[in-house]
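[job 0417] fold request received: DUF4982 domain-containing protein
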Amino acid sequence: MIRVPFPASWTVGPKLGAFERPDADTAPRPVTVPHDALRDLPREPSSPQGVHAGYFPGGVFAYTATFEVPATWREKTVLVEFEGVYRDAVVRVNGDVAAHHAGGYSAFRVPLDGFLRFGETNTLTVDARVHKDSRWYTGAGIYRPVHLVVADPVHLTLDGVDARAVDVDDERAMFALSAEVRNTTRHTRTTRVMWAIVDPRGVAVARTSVPLTLTPGETAVARTRVAVADPQRWSPEAPHLYRVEAALTDEADDSELDRAALTTGIRTLQLDPARGLRVNGVGVDLRGACVHHDNGVLGSAGDAAAEDRRIRRLKEAGFNAIRSSHNPASRAVLEACDRHGMLVMDELTDVWLQSKTAFDASVTFAETWREEVAALVAKDRSHPSVILYSIGNEILELGRPIGAAWGRSLAEEIRRLDPTRYVTNGINGIIANLEAIAEITGEAKGEEADAGEDATDPNTMMANMGAQMAAANASDLVSRSIEEAASVLDVVGFNYADSRYRQDAIDHPHRVIVGSETFPDRIAELWRLVTELPHVIGDFTWTGWDYLGEAGIGRVDYTDAEGYVATGTAGPYPYVLADCGDIDITGHRLPASYYREIAFGLRRAPYIAVHRPQHHGRPAAKTPWSWDDVVASWSWGVPAGSPVTVDVYADADEVELLLEGRSLGVAPVGEARDLVARFEIAYRPGELLAVARKGGVVIGSHALASAAGDVSLRAAAEGGILPGPLSFVDIVLADAAGVVPCDRDVLVTVEVDGPGEIAGLGTGRARTEESFAGPSCTTFDGRALAVIRRTGDGPLALRVSAEGHAPVEVSLA
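[job 0417] inference complete; emitting structure tokens
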């Protein structure tokens, strides 16, 4: 079946009751789908969704579209497909309820045939709601694409074409091809299904076809196998992709009834505790990033260009795998991972039957889990990037027998639908044993234990447990409680439980482990475990890319600040971002990203990270998800001679620091912390150079320069963006050499000239009251990002202005 974008313009407004009438504040307004109805609403400290959603409110939103239905559609099969609506979507056609879909992240289809008025204008409405139903920012509304499908009564089903590369060697790969066909007529029909395999060069390298007869009302599957010679394998280093084209014809008159296509790859997977994970026979350690689904300044709106940009930048930063936390990834994300060679752990859900928030998906899970699993597999099964299905994250009931039974049911259903990939689960032994927390932490033995200021918040609880958490996760109680739940998995995912890695190799010698979620500042130690222990196949940090909600979980507080109050991991209003990503929401790499690249062994050169000198000597409070408050800058508006702490990240024995060619001394690496040489020096402008040595030999250097002369406003459209309506424009304050000072932030205003609009505007600042809708924002560390959406044909330009600076203009293609 051929999907096309739903051919209509959309409006959205608050959902009104049957006897309510819209006013100026509730009147529907035009929007472009995909759209996030939550992003532009006012935030406030008293929001019922609180810190979890970044203090955004909840609400119920009504989307409306009108579309023409030709009389010729009377003999067709007509569907509308939603890739994602958050949440509890109710779909109406011409006022009549046509569907209800509880899940917020899974695609669903709505047959329209019985509701359409042929030869007339029809109305489609979608109600979506969000209220205290998640531990992070979800957004709301039709946040992923919508498709219209108009097909012959005899047609290929949506996602019904499959192509699996089986029996692969260097000489040839066998494709097991299948196509599901539906006959909605009252007559027996004989059809023919034809396939063509197109290689990465665009050359058709194999063709085949089979007949298929369908009785009235029958859905049947056509199958065949075809060989492809000299297969070009898909791998993270060489992501070669094949296109599989399928066509359905009527045997009676050879007329074409339907067609479909998919993109896939040829690759093999192997897994064992002695050799770990192998892709195409080659060992792969997963350099993983946990990521949430929002797109920063765009809110939760899932534009393909934004998803591609994020995956590309994560790959450039050294990651080779992502974990979709804690919900299924979008099609656009998987397509980007296929293109860029990013491996994927796609996760089903954050909850099963026991809730974590008042109105979360646990309410309907028992009734909808098969539907959710089916949607996950149907979306993923053709993507070579997907290697792991995760059936959950920190499931509360996992340590109980009933939780293990549910895990088995989920794992077996996934295997039934797709036996070609591995099944995992993000197990947190502490979370799975909340009721036994006192015993785990030793309180039952008469020792003092602190479960946290707010034991109902797992993040705060884990942060406050400190070193106790490692011992607790490795305890006999946890081992016994999770044994059955772990036994149903191909790969046991452990969240914050690296203390189990070595002992599990002894206690469970056939167990394969992945660090499904880990603290970001421990990557040096964690990566040594991954490379040393063959049964540990990778590490997924929390988190690779910063996100909305769980506000302030990775912040750094200065405890001598006026009015400071310790709040555990909950960032007080106006925190909006988690503030814990290697890469911020604009796509800018932070110092933590370069530290990780060094820890992975991918960067030989050192990297300079400067503690902000205006805070030198102040007492700081961090969470386990925090990085140091550092930036890669040597341009500061502090008096010369001011004390400053400089860290140099390096996989070396020692680092020498020089300022304007004069040595400031040599510091050993690893004394302050893993892979860090620390210097206490006085600030003076100039060029700061770090030279790293190992075994007395220079292995690399890194330099930072102070801004010289006037600093001006600059803006440039990014290249390499996936074709589409969005342009990404980087805005910076920089000197003539491109040096960006971090403490001269200004309010910038963006204006669009031509057929376009601001889709999003913002920075990586975690604590702000500024809206992402624009037209203005204050730069953060000298940077901002504007995303512009083209709305028509013709010249399009962007003008950026700021007080005290000459405005700049950027022409957009």
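[job 0417] notes: DSSP finds eleven helices and 46 strands in the chain. The CA atoms of residues 116 and 122 lie 7 Å apart.
[job 0417] exit 0
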